[in-house]
Write a structure and sequence with these properties.
The complex is a heterodimer of chains A (112) and B (112).
Chain A (H helix, E strand, L loop, with lengths): L2 E5 L2 E5 L4 E8 L3 E9 L6 E6 L5 E4 L2 E5 L3 E6 L8 E11 L2 E6 L3 E6 L1
Parallel strand pairs in A: 2-11
Antiparallel strand pairs in A: 1-3, 3-8, 4-5, 4-9, 6-7, 7-8, 9-10, 9-11
Chain B lengths: L4 E3 L2 E4 L5 E6 L6 E7 L6 E7 L2 E5 L6 E5 L5 E5 L8 E8 L6 E3 L3 E5 L1
Parallel strand pairs in B: 2-11
Antiparallel strand pairs in B: 1-3, 3-8, 4-5, 4-9, 5-6, 7-8, 9-10, 9-11
The chains are: A mainly beta (112), B mainly beta (112).
Amino acid sequence: EDQVTQSPEALRLQEGESSSLNCSYTVSGLRGLFWYRQDPGKGPEFLFTLYSAGEEKEKERLKATLTKKESFLHITAPKPEDSATYLCAAYSLYNQGGKLIFGQGTELSVKP
Amino acid sequence: DAGVTQSPTHLIKTRGQHVTLRCSPISGHKSVSWYQQVLGQGPQFIFQYYEKEERGRGNFPDRFSARQFPNYSSELNVNALLLGDSALYLCASSGVSGNTIYFGEGSWLTVV
């Protein structure tokens, strides 16, 4: 069964304290690994798409990496405005199209 | 440029009623997908449409239906509402390549 699991469920950091979020996946027909940021009451905001093991992408204080079984979202020197829920999703072929299979998210809180 | 737009943003319905949610994709995007997000969980795939044809349907009852119009906008319909249908309903659009999948802000449905 296709599955995406994120850890930890919640992470509390002090401003400037770097850390990583984990996303492990077991998905057949994988066509990409997506990362999103979601603020309370809002829709997910697109961050990155990764396609092959070894690929890395960066945006400001965020860097996403991909292996054959996991993806990591590294947050360097976070600021309070980075507080949000981070969602990982695997895009899988499904029927005649495709679908995103989401993890449950990691709720990040950054304190000043 | 306008992003993915959804309406209404919030609505309250009574058990047994019917609801229609609307979505306009990013200009030039021909694929629209619908997801349901229950509080504290990641979004779950409901439907995908491409060029007005259904390309995939998730594990949701037949009370859920959708369609895509010639201008690529889409509607999600839910009949005989249950309390458990209370959730954030998200619309996502993507171009042909599917490299990026963008979400709208969602429609918050409360069933009482």
